[in-house]
Every structure is written in structure tokens, then in C-alpha cells.
Amino acid sequence: MVKWQHRGFKYAEGFNCVSGNIGSLQMFMKNCGSCEDICPGAFPVEEVHKICVLDIRLANADRHAGNILIHKEGEDGRIVLIPIDHSYCMPENFEDCTFEWLYWPQAREPFSSDTIEYINSLDAEKDIELLKFHGWNVPHNCARVFRISIMLLKKGAERGITPFAIGCIMCKETMKKESVIEKMVQEAQESVLPGKSESAFLESISIIMDRYLDGLST
């Protein structure tokens, strides 16, 4: 995330009256194609799981095979996956969550101990504060989705639930059918009285989520 200002851009209030625009600075990554070009069975489990964690954490609504690049490292040509194009992350709701890797066999493998350790270190509040520090005040609904996503990721990993199972909670089976996470959000909203704090809502959805996940892990 960067802030920029240049006289070549047109500002309605004039160049000297603005503090700059905020946007994403992209770095070119050397690659040999995208995941559309290779059978997913060739991808290392740990590389796929890195993408899984990222997408669940950010509630990615546009993860298809074309926006995961492939890079080969070393003499043995070890495959490294590079996620790109994250303009539809941290959305206002879970309506459009889409994870290409749900159809890959690696997603059905459990997270490694190292990955679980990383997941346990995630802190939604610190991330939101960091984004604010860099100039983006995360809108309320986006922050809510972000908090719920990390909550689900951490609770699922703690119970040994696979990325596939967690992803299936977030993604719709069909366009007309609500996802499990959308139903959880709806139930939590109905259980919390109007005017209650965001923390009360999050506590409610945490209880609902525990109940559902405990059923999966038994």
C-alpha cells in the first residue's frame, strides 16, 4: 500500500489541497506461467496451503487458477506458487468467496505444525491497526468479515480441520444457496439485540462457529 501525488494527475480541489492518493504498488514476479497451465497434482502441499491460508484469511472473492503464478527454483526446479491480483480481498460480505484450490487434492491434507503455528500468530486487530497506520481505515463491514475469517481459520486449524473443509464453509455450493459462513453471520445477527457492541456480535458468532466446527471434528 502506497500514497502518491503528482502534478500530472487531475485533482478537483487542486494539487496543493490534497494529501495524495492511496493504492497498491505491484512488483513484477518472474514466473513460467500460471496454475492454469499445469496439473495441480504437481504442486507441493506446503505451497498450496500458503495460498489457502491467505485466501481464507482475506476472504478472497477472486481466487482462480489464472491469478496464481508458477516459479521454479533451484537446480531441481522446485515449484513455488505466487498469488497475485488481490483487488477483491477483505470484501464487505462473504457472498462471492471463490477458492480454486478447493478442487486440488492438497487442500484435503491437514495443515502442518509450522502452518498451524503461523495461523495461531495471526491477530486481526493488529492487522487492522497496521492498515490504518498506512492510511486505510478499514470500513466496518470489511473489518467484520476480516475478523470472522481469521476466527474461522484459527478455530479450524486448532481442531485439525483441513483447508478444504474450511473453504467449503466460506464458499457457496451453488449461486442461489447461502454458504455456511453466511448462515452463521445471519444467526449471530438475529441473536444479538439492536444497539449491542461489535464485540457482542463477535462473541455470538464465535459460539455458533464452535458448535458447527465441533460437529465437523467429531
Automatic annotation (TrEMBL):
Keyword Disulfide bond annotated: no
Provide a Gene Ontology MF annotation, just one: 1-phosphatidylinositol 4-kinase activity
Annotated signal sequence is: none
Note the Pfam families from the entry: PI3_PI4_kinase
What's in the keyword line of the UniProt record? ATP-binding, Kinase, Nucleotide-binding, Transferase
- The PI3K/PI4K catalytic domain extends over 1-200
Question: Does this UniProt record's set of keywords contain NAD?
Answer: no
Q: Which EC number applies?
A: 2.7.1.67
Q: Which PANTHER family match?
A: PHOSPHATIDYLINOSITOL 4-KINASE GAMMA, PHOSPHATIDYLINOSITOL 4-KINASE GAMMA 3
Family classification = Belongs to the PI3/PI4-kinase family. Type II PI4K subfamily.
**Name under which the protein is recorded:** 1-phosphatidylinositol 4-kinase
Native source species: Sesamum latifolium
